[in-house]
Design goal:
This protein has helices at about 1-20, 25-50, 55-80. It has about 80 residues and is an all-alpha fold. The longest helix has 26 residues, at about 25-50. The chain is flat, with a radius of gyration of 15 Å.
Length: about 80
């Protein structure tokens, strides 16, 4: 059953990438990219469970932190507040 869920998540990530590529606005693209990052995080956790490897959970955690920081950087860049902290 877990293998089918992993396959579904991969297909879902591919479909979500369509929103990133074809999004009419920057906000649509950012939301799509955030959704892809969350789905990839879930995929890494499921792969970790299916392979019974704890190290993949660490990789998923680091990936999630970079995804969150990336969304913050893109938000700041596209809002026009580049010099402020």
């Amino acid at each position: 059953m877990l293998i089918w869920v992993i396959r579904f998540m991969v297909v879902s990530i591919v479909v979500s990438m369509v929103r990133v590529v074809r999004g009419p606005t920057v906000a649509d693209r950012m939301i799509g990219l955030n959704m892809v990052a969350a789905q990839t995080l879930a995929l890494l956790v499921m792969i970790s469970v299916s392979m019974e490897r704890v190290i993949y959970l660490d990789v998923a955690l680091v990936y999630d932190i970079f995804g969150f920081v990336g969304i913050l950087v893109m938000t700041r860049y596209f809002s026009g507040r580049k010099g402020e902290l």
